[in-house]
Amino acid sequence: MSLCEAEKTFVLHGVEENFRLDGREREDYRPMELETDIVLHAFGSARLRLANTDVLVAVKIEIDVPFPERSKEGKLEFFVDCSANATPDFEGRGGEDLAVEIANTLSSAYRSKHAFDLTKLCILKGKKCWKVYVDILLLECGGNLFDAVSLAVKAALWNTQVPKVHGVNIDGNNIELNVSEELYDCDRLDVKNAPVMVTVCKIGEKCIVDPSVAEEQCSVGSIVVAVSGDKFSTVLQTGTGSLHPATLMESLKLGHRVAQRLDEALWATLRQIKPGQDVGFLK
Amino acid sequence: MSRNRDLLSKIGLRLDGRRPDELRRIRCKLGVFTEPDGSAYLEQGLTKVLAAVYGPHQVRGGRSKAQHDTAIINCQFSMAVFSTTDRKKRPRGDRKSTELSMHLQQALEAVIKSELYPWSQIDVYVEVLHADGGIYTACVNAATLALIDAGIPLKEYVCACTASLANNDVPMIDISHQEEIIGGPTLTVAALPMSGKIVLMEMSQRFHMDHLEKVLNKALQGCKDIRQILDEAVRLHVRDIGSSTGWANTS
Amino acid sequence: MTELRICLPGQRLCLSDKVYTSGQGTYERQGYIYSQLTGCLDIVEKDNVKVVEVHSSGEQTVVPGQGDIITAQVYIITQQYAKCNIKCVGDTVLRRPFRAVLRREDVRATEKDRVEIYKSFRPGDIILARVAERSITD
């Protein structure tokens, strides 16, 4: 979508008066819907719908050998797939650039020990650990992908059930794990400090969060802030355009504030989820 | 040949409790997304498929591909990485996906009235969210629904169904993944149910010529039944949409 | 006639004979008229013949064809032609633009060889035009 000068000016004036195109204030988010336990094959899954943006996340777990230099830690891998359903430009390998960018940002956000503790994924030091694959499918893009993806990933990890390991049989170099066969005998992952990303866009003199597609086109510069607990996990500047250091500090503070509110809202929703609800695309 | 479980038990029930000529439960919804011109979601048993249609629009990728008397139909078949029990490494680009994309294109070219839109292109994208046997057939059915939702003129519905043979004698329809692995030959048929024409037929393994006809007939009957179900769903959807927009365009 | 009759693609509507002929949204096969679209059935009287039409309840899928009046916006000009994006066909606004070329000879009816494109159009201008004959090199 390309906007003409008049439309860009209109958006700019709206932002300055704290009344955006759809009536929101600068720090308001569009309505979101969250569902978990959508994918049956997976250990955990979530689907988030933020206005027109639709993201489906599934978590699968495998047993793997830990890296030799990090023998006490498990592994966490992100894979993003931009489906052609979202726009014809994503056909074939068209969406790869965007996918790689999102996957790398998520990896760097989850790298810190404070954000996600990989030592909990270790089964036997140096020999066996859990490898967690987080697979993200972008079904529709309506602006503000990073926020939607990070919230969906956090919800999916919260929903993940890791089977308990009851015992280990070591026979020379052969290691056999006694994994529990019970369906409900599982551990949950600790996602209290998992990072939540917020995209802050500078339009004119003011900063806004949760830009729609039209607002993303008008922005002078934008940064993506990943906040975990009350610390910053990663900061990424996207798009063209440069920011003054003072603006950067202001945006970081704004991102931090909004991320705390988002996190609280997410936990409130997750607590309300009852198992066995009717979910999915049919509703 | 001794197997752990028989495809058909002594009382005539299959592995999941169905009778040999019973289809799995089909649930579908049209108009799931706002960005594509037409979209649909279809569940056939545990297999879940999303289809999106864009078009007709300008041919992308150069004028040389455009045809002067017909629209180009471009299909892409993609399976989500988490759709199978073992995680897939790549969602598309492997040989199986390319082959299924071509088969999908073959099935849809038979029904879309492409001579109405020269110099343009219609894109059909299918995404498999959960694979449990019969993914090609679910994709064809979902693509039909998405095309209807997009308002593209069709000669009629194109439906697809799988069929197989149990105990060398009894034909079964709508094969699930378990039955595919344990069982015998699978016949996939895409057909136009109203005119009774077959658009695509594919078979794996082998069975005797004598059995071919009855398995094929069962599959065609399955296509007709699927068309009934899809028809109902489209009527419901059109009634909902129509009543909310008030049929503004008609006199 | 005011009763709402919904029809679906592939539904057989009636016999094709001297009384009924197929119109927009329908096609003929083996002596019968079938519907192509999902929508309302309409029978229009024209020259003593009843034309059977199906009107889609959603947006019309329309593609610029020969002879259509289109509204386009110019985005590139050279000395020989002006490239434009077709925004509307007749009264229908398109969701996605189609590309079109306006040649120097087609700008006006008189003095065709003395046309200078940059004196007639600039990028960003909106023009009303008719689609000429399509050629393979179009």
TrEMBL record, chain A:
<dbReference type="InterPro" id="IPR020568">
    <property type="entry name" value="Ribosomal_Su5_D2-typ_SF"/>
</dbReference>
<dbReference type="Pfam" id="PF03725">
    <property type="entry name" value="RNase_PH_C"/>
</dbReference>
<feature type="domain" description="Exoribonuclease phosphorolytic">
    <location>
        <begin position="29"/>
        <end position="163"/>
    </location>
</feature>
<dbReference type="InterPro" id="IPR050590">
    <property type="entry name" value="Exosome_comp_Rrp42_subfam"/>
</dbReference>
<dbReference type="GO" id="GO:0071038">
    <property type="term" value="P:TRAMP-dependent tRNA surveillance pathway"/>
</dbReference>
<dbReference type="InterPro" id="IPR015847">
    <property type="entry name" value="ExoRNase_PH_dom2"/>
</dbReference>
<protein>
    <recommendedName>
        <fullName>Ribosomal RNA-processing protein 42</fullName>
    </recommendedName>
</protein>
<dbReference type="GO" id="GO:0034476">
    <property type="term" value="P:U5 snRNA 3'-end processing"/>
</dbReference>
<dbReference type="GO" id="GO:0000176">
    <property type="term" value="C:nuclear exosome (RNase complex)"/>
</dbReference>
<dbReference type="InterPro" id="IPR001247">
    <property type="entry name" value="ExoRNase_PH_dom1"/>
</dbReference>
<keyword id="KW-0963">Cytoplasm</keyword>
<keyword id="KW-0271">Exosome</keyword>
<dbReference type="GO" id="GO:0071035">
    <property type="term" value="P:nuclear polyadenylation-dependent rRNA catabolic process"/>
</dbReference>
<dbReference type="InterPro" id="IPR036345">
    <property type="entry name" value="ExoRNase_PH_dom2_sf"/>
</dbReference>
<dbReference type="GO" id="GO:0034473">
    <property type="term" value="P:U1 snRNA 3'-end processing"/>
</dbReference>
From TrEMBL, chain B:
<dbReference type="GO" id="GO:0071051">
    <property type="term" value="P:poly(A)-dependent snoRNA 3'-end processing"/>
</dbReference>
<dbReference type="InterPro" id="IPR027408">
    <property type="entry name" value="PNPase/RNase_PH_dom_sf"/>
</dbReference>
<comment type="similarity">
    <text>Belongs to the RNase PH family.</text>
</comment>
<dbReference type="Pfam" id="PF03725">
    <property type="entry name" value="RNase_PH_C"/>
</dbReference>
<dbReference type="GO" id="GO:0000177">
    <property type="term" value="C:cytoplasmic exosome (RNase complex)"/>
</dbReference>
<dbReference type="InterPro" id="IPR036345">
    <property type="entry name" value="ExoRNase_PH_dom2_sf"/>
</dbReference>
<dbReference type="GO" id="GO:0000176">
    <property type="term" value="C:nuclear exosome (RNase complex)"/>
</dbReference>
<dbReference type="Pfam" id="PF01138">
    <property type="entry name" value="RNase_PH"/>
</dbReference>
<dbReference type="GO" id="GO:0003723">
    <property type="term" value="F:RNA binding"/>
</dbReference>
<feature type="domain" description="Exoribonuclease phosphorolytic">
    <location>
        <begin position="157"/>
        <end position="221"/>
    </location>
</feature>
<dbReference type="InterPro" id="IPR001247">
    <property type="entry name" value="ExoRNase_PH_dom1"/>
</dbReference>
<dbReference type="GO" id="GO:0016075">
    <property type="term" value="P:rRNA catabolic process"/>
</dbReference>
<dbReference type="GO" id="GO:0005730">
    <property type="term" value="C:nucleolus"/>
</dbReference>
<dbReference type="GO" id="GO:0034475">
    <property type="term" value="P:U4 snRNA 3'-end processing"/>
</dbReference>
<protein>
    <recommendedName>
        <fullName>Exosome complex component RRP41</fullName>
    </recommendedName>
</protein>
TrEMBL record, chain C:
<feature type="domain" description="Exosome complex component N-terminal">
    <location>
        <begin position="6"/>
        <end position="44"/>
    </location>
</feature>
<dbReference type="InterPro" id="IPR039771">
    <property type="entry name" value="Csl4"/>
</dbReference>
<dbReference type="Pfam" id="PF14382">
    <property type="entry name" value="ECR1_N"/>
</dbReference>
<keyword id="KW-0963">Cytoplasm</keyword>
<dbReference type="GO" id="GO:0005730">
    <property type="term" value="C:nucleolus"/>
</dbReference>
<feature type="domain" description="Exosome complex component CSL4 C-terminal">
    <location>
        <begin position="96"/>
        <end position="131"/>
    </location>
</feature>
<dbReference type="GO" id="GO:0006396">
    <property type="term" value="P:RNA processing"/>
</dbReference>
<dbReference type="GO" id="GO:0003723">
    <property type="term" value="F:RNA binding"/>
</dbReference>
<dbReference type="InterPro" id="IPR025721">
    <property type="entry name" value="Exosome_cplx_N_dom"/>
</dbReference>
<dbReference type="InterPro" id="IPR012340">
    <property type="entry name" value="NA-bd_OB-fold"/>
</dbReference>
<dbReference type="GO" id="GO:0000176">
    <property type="term" value="C:nuclear exosome (RNase complex)"/>
</dbReference>
<dbReference type="GO" id="GO:0005737">
    <property type="term" value="C:cytoplasm"/>
</dbReference>
<dbReference type="Pfam" id="PF10447">
    <property type="entry name" value="EXOSC1"/>
</dbReference>
<dbReference type="InterPro" id="IPR019495">
    <property type="entry name" value="EXOSC1_C"/>
</dbReference>
<protein>
    <recommendedName>
        <fullName>Exosome complex component CSL4</fullName>
    </recommendedName>
</protein>
